[in-house]
Write a structure and sequence with these properties.
The chain is mainly alpha-helical and 226 residues long. It folds into 2 domains: 8-120, no CATH class; 123-209. The chain is built from 9 helices and 2 strands, in the order H-H-E-H-E-H-H-H-H-H-H. It has a two-stranded antiparallel ribbon with strand order 1-2. Helix 5 packs antiparallel against helix 6. The chain is elongated and about 70 Å long.
Length: 226
């Protein structure tokens, strides 16, 4: 299914939970508002809870495959900017944390029962973009530094020079990260602070555990009976 505008009846019956397990009918009661957080962004965990509450709790959401659901839909609501001073709404929609990897039937059901979420403010979208961009930059820089230490036969003098260069970049990204409002930040800055190249190498482990490049997965939450 694409992010097209659609009425509930346009989704194939075979792609949805069977009628006998459905506890909500959008054709009778209307489509449900998509859950939002305090920033006006789609609340993924709230969305999962809402969708699960509208079917029999014993239903297992069996699907032939899993795919990515864009939390901010439809695609047409988030165009690329026409002018340099505009927020890149397309980039915002494609942020890693604006997606979720879920069973296909669950994906279909979300589109079937929920309204497209309201478009966040320009400020919220830009802060979201900035937060991911700086977090990715920190993770990439720290990871590169670690890889440099693993290059066989690199002269020590050259290695130290390259590590110092990457640490300079890392320090700049840290300063940028401090400019992102705390409620949008994807990182706890105090956990990845570094005052030297050696500390940057240690911070890489913490950044790696955040899985900043990975689309959030909600298989277990969806398939569990809870």
């Amino acid at each position: 299914m694409t992010d097209r505008l659609h009425a509930p009846h346009t989704v194939s019956r075979d792609s949805l939970p069977p009628a006998e397990v459905r506890a909500y009918d959008p054709s009778r009661y209307g489509m449900l508002p998509t859950p939002l957080d305090e920033r006006g962004l789609v609340d993924l965990d709230g969305l999962v809870m809402l969708a699960k509450s509208t079917v029999d709790p014993e239903y297992t959401w069996q699907s032939s495959f899993n795919d990515v659901h864009h939390l901010q839909w439809h695609a047409g609501y988030y165009p690329r900017p026409k002018h340099d001073d505009e927020v890149n709404m397309h980039t915002f929609r494609e942020l890693v944390n604006r997606k979720a990897y879920i069973p296909r039937v669950f994906h279909n059901w979300i589109h079937y029962i929920t309204e497209p979420p309201p478009i966040p403010t320009d400020e919220v979208m830009q802060y979201s973009i900035d937060a991911q961009r700086v977090a990715m930059s920190l993770a990439h820089t720290a990871s590169l530094a670690v890889r440099l230490t693993r290059i066989a036969r690199m002269p020590e003098k050259k290695l130290l020079m390259r590590l110092d260069q990457e640490f300079e970049h890392y320090a700049i990204y840290l300063d940028n990260a401090r400019e992102v409002p705390e409620e949008f930040s994807l990182i706890a800055i105090h956990e990845i602070e570094a005052k030297s190249a050696e500390e940057m190498l240690i911070a890489n482990k913490r950044l790696g555990r955040l899985a900043l490049h990975t689309v959030p997965t909600r298989h277990r939450a969806i398939l569990s009976g809870a």
